[in-house]
């Protein structure tokens, strides 16, 4: 996981996936200290917290992962070097066979449309799951995803096994059927061309204009 925040997501996953090994990378050591001091964050043999830049970590570390989560924010927005085609290609290289990556993306701006479009150039398939709270979770894989019935069956089986607090079948109901259509107006973001601050200010949704 890239980005810690208060540590709620890593703590949640560690609790409901007792066999999972979890590594969280946080660029700000102060955030790690605050989470340990005020939120009871505690490293274990299978749960690690590392101070550093997520992209640098993935460049230097050749391990592959079943799941990579990107929830890294600075000043409320994802840093530009974690939004480019080259970064997404790095993410893809670090996925184990059958693995997936999930990205937390603010919607309603040209940056959102550009993020979706950039993801589409790297991953052969991905789903978008709107939260209804101004953010969308993009789930990308290096292989084709299951059809809706297959996803519903898999979600129900996993929910039955792990008893997640937030039921997976309900999340599947929010899945957008044609995510690529949401990339209208977007531009591919690269290491050489990443005007993310400008794109974030360019609204594509009336909700952000008021």
How would you summarize what this structure contains?
The protein is α/β, with parallel strands linked by helices. α4 (85-93) packs across α5. The chain has helices at 8-16, 29-38, 54-60, 85-93, 110-122, 148-162, 168-172, 196-201, and strands spanning 22-26, 47-51, 65-70, 95-106, 125-130, 135-141.
Secondary structure blueprint with pairings:
Elements: H1 8-16, E1 22-26, H2 29-38, E2 47-51, H3 54-60, E3 65-70, H4 85-93, E4 95-106, H5 110-122, E5 125-130, E6 135-141, H6 148-162, H7 168-172, H8 196-201
Parallel strand pairs: 1-2, 3-4
Antiparallel strand pairs: 4-6, 5-6
Helix pairs in contact: 4-5
Describe it for me?
The chain is of the alpha/beta class and 210 residues long. The chain is 35% helix and 20% strand. Helix 2 links the parallel strand 1 and strand 2. Helix 4 packs across helix 5. The C terminus is likely disordered.
């Amino acid at each position: 996981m890239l980005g810690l925040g208060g540590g709620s997501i890593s703590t949640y996953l560690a609790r409901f996936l007792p066999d999972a090994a979890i590594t969280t990378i946080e660029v700000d050591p102060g955030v790690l200290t605050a989470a340990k001091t005020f939120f009871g964050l505690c490293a274990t043999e299978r749960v690690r917290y590392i101070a550093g830049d997520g992209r640098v970590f993935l460049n230097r570390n050749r391990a592959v992962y079943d799941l990579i989560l990107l929830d890294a924010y600075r000043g409320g927005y994802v840093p530009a070097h974690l939004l480019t085609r080259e970064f997404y290609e790095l993410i893809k290289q670090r996925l184990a066979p059958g693995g997936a990556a999930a990205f937390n993306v603010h919607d309603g701006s040209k940056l959102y449309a550009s993020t979706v479009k950039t993801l589409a150039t790297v991953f052969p398939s991905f789903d978008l799951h709107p939260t209804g709270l101004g953010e969308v979770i993009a789930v990308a894989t290096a292989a084709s995803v299951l059809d809706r019935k297959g996803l519903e069956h898999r979600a129900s089986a996993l929910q039955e096994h792990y008893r997640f607090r937030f039921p997976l079948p309900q999340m599947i109901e929010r899945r957008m059927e044609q995510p690529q259509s949401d990339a209208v107006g977007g531009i591919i973001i690269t290491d050489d061309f990443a005007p993310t601050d400008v794109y974030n200010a360019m609204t594509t949704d009336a909700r952000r204009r008021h």
